[in-house]
Design brief:
It is an enzyme of class 1 (oxidoreductase). Pfam families: 2OG-FeII_Oxy_3, PKHD_C. Its EC number is 1.14.11.-. The protein is of the alpha+beta class. It has two domains: 176 residues, Jelly Rolls (Sandwich); 41 residues, DNA Excision Repair, Uvrb, Chain A. The protein contains six helices and 16 strands. Helix 5 runs antiparallel to helix 6. 32% of the residues are buried. Bound molecules: 2-oxoglutaric acid and fe (ii) ion. 2-oxoglutaric acid binds next to strand 15 and strand 16.
């Protein structure tokens, strides 16, 4: 399941993040790449221990925790501290798959990457190219969202970022370990949650709501690892 989460950050939060990021010291993006992806990765990244990365990373996690759509779609158990990347003209990231397990730098914590996320911090008008292409069962999906919006996609998918031909694309990217490991089970829970919310809104106090809510929780109880 590929899902867009709009307005994770407000315009003001994006502007403040961009002010800090545009003045930051960027490094070669290969610092966090595995062997396979290092060969196709051409971008820049903020070092994970840079003060700007740490502060912005905390802001992104706080924003995610306030987003009901993110929580419902991802059912997060652990969030890898968000990283920041920048692609300028000529940069691209070829087809790759993300590592299944990531160590959180400076800790003994491991995150299993069930979901990958890109939070766009540049508006589509600021650059040409730079689409995130995710290979899905329905074929390749091309994703380019407004600044402050985020896409969640299964970390098991092959994906790439098209070459930038003008301007710069700045984003935050990270991974989520979900309480529900399987994409198919998570997608069904998300659908059921949305349907229950719609029923609640359109037909308040319908007796089926409590029954369906029971089914949601019983499936979650069956599938969740906590
Ligand atoms: O820049 C992006 O949108 C994706 C980055 C990515 O795929 C990665 O760092 O593994
Ligand atoms: Fe990736």
């Amino acid at each position: 399941m590929i899902i867009a989460i709009p307005n994770v950050l407000s315009i003001e939060q994006v502007t403040e993040a961009r002010r800090l990021l545009d003045a930051a010291d960027w490094a070669d993006g290969r610092i966090t790449a595995g062997h396979q992806s290092a060969r196709v990765k051409e971008n820049q990244q903020l070092p994970e221990d840079s003060p700007v990365a740490r502060k912005l990373s905390e802001n992104v996690v706080a924003a995610l925790e306030r987003s009901p759509l993110f929580v419902s779609a991802a059912l997060p158990s652990k969030i890898f501290p968000p990283l920041f990347n920048r692609y300028q003209a000529g940069h691209a990231f070829g087809l790759h798959v993300d590592n299944a397990i990531r160590m959180v730098r400076g800790t003994a914590h491991r995150v299993r990457t069930d979901l990958s996320a890109t939070l766009f911090l540049s508006g589509p008008e600021e650059y040409d190219g730079g689409e995130l292409i995710v290979e899905d069962t329905y074929g390749p999906q091309s994703i380019k969202l407004p600044a402050g919006h985020m896409v969640l996609y299964p970390a098991s998918s092959l994906h790439k970022v098209q070459a930038i031909t003008r301007g710069a694309r700045v984003a935050s990217f990270f991974w989520i370990q979900s309480m529900v490991r399987g994409d198919a089970e998570r997608a069904m829970l998300f659908d059921l949650d949305l349907a229950i919310q719609r029923l609640n809104r359109d037909v308040p106090d319908h007796p089926s709501t409590v029954q369906l809510t029971g089914v949601y929780h019983n499936l979650l109880r069956r599938w969740a690892e906590v």
